[in-house]
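As agreed, record copied across for absentees:
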Amino acid sequence: MLPVTDFPPEIVIQLNGQIVNCPPQQPLPDFLAQQQLNPRLIAIEYNGEILHRQYWATTQLAAGDRLEIVTIVGGG
């Protein structure tokens, strides 16, 4: 029998071309917080499509997902 662990299994996703592990079905806002990203200052491409902010709260990450996240930088 396999030992039981307190840790949920992890899935692999791509974040800006890098392999990242996270819990399955992790809500996108939780993932962004874990990555220390300010949601007000980023834009997200999710599996090749721009993900509008209104859908962030209902998006859950799955194995093989691809995220491209760009940070908005102000200046003058």
Remarks:
- The two ends are 62 Å apart (CA to CA).
- The longest helix spans residues 28-34.
- The chain has a mean pLDDT of 91.
- The chain is about 10% helix and 30% strand.
